[in-house]
Design goal:
heterodimer, A: mainly alpha, 11 helices, B: 250 residues
Chain lengths: 264, 250
């Protein structure tokens, strides 16, 4: 029985991702047989080889770490300020009246257009990138926290109040945990934005980072490096997405929700 | 309170913020070399509009953004629906979707420079592919999550099977599809500006970049303001359309 249960695991993984395997195989075959120009689409094996070389030489890890660093710091800043801001909005009518129009205007505007202004104000180092990421990520976090904390089940509140919970404790011990699934969903929406903005800012300002690595490769017509950079960026995105899903399952272990299973 | 008064009152904090900006600049609290006043920015808007730069570049940017967005909306809804309705399509597309979803879409811009050069095509492609996946995912989830009784009722009332996705599933899934489209709309402006920052050749993003390089900061602020207003106006137009399209609900 044990062996029967073991073999299908790999087979099932293969079967579940059959179309990805087919696309990758087609990529390799068409480029090797000359259907596609090898400059525009380098063979998969060349891309992997280039990726491996840059991995061993330490170039890719350095760039990936730089991207992960600015994305994470900007995101953490947005998460802290956004959760507090959203919570304040649901606690105080004055704060709500001030913040609601700001959030509703900030949601649809392309915040990336402020980047040249941020560069002007904060210089060319990591600072404008981190501020840009924080500015972009804070909006969905504020609105998720606000919505989450205002729609808490009334029975929770009444029960806690009945048992003599203070206003302060009510907020932090009842409302925030009850809103946690929605707050974490907001964080899960915001983090991909952090990576999108991180990559764009790196492309624009140069320096370390996967965005800089790829744009540099395009300027020097090293197409295998462009693809290696794309692959590394994809892996970074997958890593963070997985980490968030695990964190969510860990934090909401007490909650009745079925763990959010990624995309589908 | 009358409706005419409610909207300006809602946005009051923004007007107060703009007023504070102007007052701070007048009081000399802001360094005019890196932060022009609101007045100077508005003068620069008029100036840019008179010279024709602003209007022309706005049309170019809007053309790129809307081509990418509408292509993504069309193909996204189509493939999301097909995925929900056909097991075969689902088996092919779902693994691909899962494998590409975590990629931050802006990372594709260098690839499009490589493939499509620096013209309009690269920017439209960046907007299109960036918006595509959110639309596919929201359509697919919406179409799978509809109340199955609607389908059964339509079926038992004699609706032909091939009409059901179009007449029953799509309308039932529309609210969720529309919220996916709204996210994609905001993303389309972000990608449009990013692509124009990176790949020169006209457009509002490029205009912001060149004005900044020339040290014309009031002009740069004016162009940023224009992009901001454009994104905001598109979103409000979308919300209005959404309200009209979904009027049959309740």
């Amino acid at each position: 029985m044990a062996t029967r249960a073991k073999t299908p695991w790999l087979w099932r993984a293969f079967e579940r991702n059959l179309s990805v395997v087919v696309v990758l195989a087609l990529w390799e075959i068409t480029t090797r047989t000359g259907v596609f120009n090898n400059f525009l689409l380098p063979p998969l094996s060349d891309v992997l080889l280039r990726g491996f070389r840059d991995l061993v030489s330490g170039e890719l890890p350095r760039h990936a770490l730089a991207t992960a660093y600015i994305a994470f710091v900007g995101f953490a800043f947005a998460a802290g300020a956004g959760i507090v801001g959203g919570a304040l909005m649901s606690m105080s009518a004055t704060v709500r009246r001030i913040m609601e129009p700001l959030v509703s205007v900030a949601f649809p505007i392309p915040k990336i257009s402020f980047l040249p202004i941020f560069i002007l104000w904060f210089g060319l180092d990591n600072m404008p990138k981190i501020m840009m990421i924080a500015f972009t990520c804070i909006v969905p976090i504020i609105s998720a926290t606000y919505l989450g904390t205002t729609t808490v089940d009334k029975y929770f509140l009444w029960s806690a109040q009945n048992l003599g919970t203070s206003r302060h404790a009510l907020f932090w011990k009842v409302i925030v945990p009850a809103a946690a699934p929605q707050i974490i969903s907001g964080l899960q929406v915001a983090f991909p934005l952090a990576l999108i903005i991180a990559v764009v800012t790196e492309m624009l300002t140069g320096g370390d980072g996967l965005g800089g690595y790829m744009i540099h490769a395009v300027r020097f017509a090293q197409s295998d490096k462009v693809f290696a950079g794309l692959l590394a960026t994809l892996l970074l995105g997958m890593f963070f997405m997985q980490a968030f899903a695990m964190l969510r399952a860990r934090l909401l272990v007490w909650h009745a929700e079925t763990a959010f299973a990624g995309v589908t | 309170m009358s409706k005419a008064l409610r909207i300006p009152l809602f946005y009051m904090p923004i007007f107060v913020g703009l007023l504070l900006w102007e007052l701070a600049a007048r009081a000399g609290l802001l360094d005019p070399s890196i932060c022009p006043s609101l007045g100077a920015t508005l003068v620069a808007v008029v100036h840019l509009a008179e010279k024709g730069h602003l209007i022309e570049n706005t049309w170019i940017s809007l053309y790129r953004q809307s081509s990418g967005f509408f292509l993504a909306a069309f193909f996204g809804i189509l493939s999301g629906m097909l995925m929900a309705e056909s097991r075969w399509v689902r088996n092919v597309l779902e693994p691909l979707l899962r494998a590409t979803f975590p990629l931050p879409k802006s990372a594709l811009i260098p690839l499009f420079i490589l493939w499509l050069g620096i013209g309009d095509a690269a920017k439209v492609a960046a907007v299109f592919l960036g918006c595509l996946l959110p639309v596919v995912v929201s359509t697919y989830n919406a179409a799978r999550g509809i109340n199955k009784q609607l389908v059964w009722s339509a079926w038992s009332l004699g609706t032909p099977k091939w009409l059901i996705p179009w007449k029953v599933v799509l309308p039932a899934a529309l609210p969720e599809i529309m919220s996916g489209l709204r996210i994609a709309l905001a993303l389309s402006f972000t990608l449009m500006v990013s692509a124009e920052f990176l790949i020169g050749q006209r457009g509002l993003g490029t205009l912001i970049g060149t004005l900044g390089e020339d040290g014309d900061y009031p002009g740069m602020f004016a162009a940023v303001l224009a992009v901001t207003l454009l994104g905001f106006a598109a979103d409000r137009l979308f919300l209005w359309l959404n309200g009209r399209l979904l009027r049959w609900r309740e």
